[in-house]
UniProtKB/TrEMBL annotation:
The chain crosses the membrane at residues 59-78, 163-187, 199-221, 272-292, 299-316, 322-344. Its main location: membrane. It comes from the Archaea. GO terms for molecular function: ABC-type phosphonate transporter activity. Pfam families: BPD_transp_1 (PF00528). It is a multi-pass membrane protein. Residues 163-345 form the ABC transmembrane type-1 domain. The lineage of its organism: Archaea, Methanobacteriati, Methanobacteriota, Stenosarchaea group, Halobacteria. Belongs to the binding-protein-dependent transport system permease family. Residues 1-38 are annotated as: Disordered. It comes from Halorubrum aidingense JCM 13560. Gene3D superfamilies: MetI-like. Residues 12-23 have a biased composition (Basic and acidic residues). This is Phosphonate ABC transporter permease.
Length: 378
């Protein structure tokens, strides 16, 4: 008796095909997983080896750079004769006693003799001229002497003695150089003057900066003589180059919104420059001018060394006489002058910033220890 096999229906055939497809998919996935398990460790090892090679190359590069800097530094020391056996540390220590006189108090305690510094500062009128100051500081006040102080002796700067001459050179150089720096800096900006014409002003400022202020002083000596006048004009020239370049950089960073708004209203080119450009950088221009004034006072000390007057001239003369104690006293007077100018300039610049708390010069000086302690505890 034959056994009858049932004919597969369409639905059963679809189920068989689905089962075969699942088996095939599972097999392929398992084979792919096995293959990926074999390749992933190789890729990780290759990447790790690449990282190690990169670090080795960087380490070799840094070692080469350090070796080159060490070799170059050694060559520079040799060129500056610091490797000369005559330049010994013992000689340097012995020479320090000329700059820093030591006095033994009670015959036992060594201490710096500051009195010798103060004596020379007073005798040389480095920070105060009593002859000029006597017209102002007297009791009871004499109106005739006060009038002579301000309008005949013109002693506002002269009352500070040699320091006043140095301060006046830096101040006059800043005042004379500022308007030219403003014109050259504005016309040197590509926003105001198109490209190749603005380079005329940029090139002029670059030429002025290429010549140091002390060389400009030597140039003006045949015209004005060796003194503060030639130094003040030289500082003014130096101000044109340095301050003008800072003005150009500020004008290159201004926003275009106010400028485009003024153009749409039909404003002329001068109106756009004055009210659209310069109005945005007014505060920055004042701050940079005060900063250049600080630099010009330092330049006044430098040009004074060649005989232009002021503290620099006193410093050079005492050095030529090998009076190192007096030389150190002059350096102390220079430090007091520079730090006073910086404090004054800093107070003015801080008042230009709306986000900084205003503080008087007296508060700045008396509150310095407290601010130092607060900064150290942060």
């Amino acid at each position: 008796m034959e056994t009858l096999t049932p004919r597969p229906t369409a639905s059963s055939r679809r189920d068989e095909n689905r089962a075969d497809l699942r088996v095939t998919t599972d097999t392929s996935n398992s084979e792919g997983a096995v293959g990926s398990d074999d390749t992933v460790p190789d890729r990780i090892a290759e990447q790790f080896e690449n990282i190690k090679q990169t670090r080795r190359r960087r380490a070799l590069g840094w070692l080469g750079l350090i070796a080159f800097l060490a070799f170059t530094t050694l060559q520079a020391f040799a060129a500056t004769e610091l490797l000369n056996p005559d330049a010994r540390l013992e000689t340097f220590r012995e020479s320090l006693t000329g700059f820093f006189p030591i006095t033994d108090y009670f015959g036992v305690i060594p201490f710096l003799d500051v009195g010798r510094y103060l004596e020379f500062i007073s005798q040389g009128n480095l920070l105060y001229d009593p002859e000029i100051g006597g017209l102002l500081f007297q009791f009871p006040p004499n109106p005739a002497d006060i009038y002579a102080f301000f309008f005949q002796e013109l002693g506002i700067f002269q009352i500070f003695g040699e320091a006043g001459i140095t301060l006046a050179m830096g101040f006059v150089g800043t005042i004379l150089g500022f308007p030219f720096a403003l014109v050259f800096g504005t016309l040197g900006s590509e926003r105001v003057t198109p490209f190749p014409f603005n380079f005329i002003f940029r090139g002029t400022m670059s030429f002025i900066r290429a010549v140091p202020a002390i060389v400009w002083t030597l140039i003006f000596i045949p015209f004005l003589g060796l003194g503060p006048s030639s130094a003040a004009i030289a500082i003014a020239f130096d101000t044109i180059g340095n301050l003008g370049r800072l003005f150009v950089d500020e004008l290159e960073e201004i926003e275009d919104g106010p400028i485009e708004a003024m153009r749409t209203t039909g404003a002329s080119k001068p109106q756009i420059v004055f009210f659209g450009m310069l109005s945005q950088v007014r505060t920055a221009f004042i701050a940079w001018t005060l900063y250049i004034f600080e630099i010009n006072v330092r330049i006044g000390v430098t040009v004074g060394v060649i005989g232009a007057g002021g503290l620099g001239y006193v410093l050079a003369s005492q050095q030529n006489l090998l009076r190192f104690t007096n030389m150190m006293a002059t350096l102390l007077a220079i430090f007091l002058l520079i730090i006073s100018v910086e404090l004054f300039s800093q107070r003015l610049r801080s008042r230009l910033r709306s986000d900084e708390v205003e503080m008087s010069i007296w508060e700045l000086i008396t509150g310095f220890p407290r601010r130092m302690a607060e900064s150290a505890l942060k």
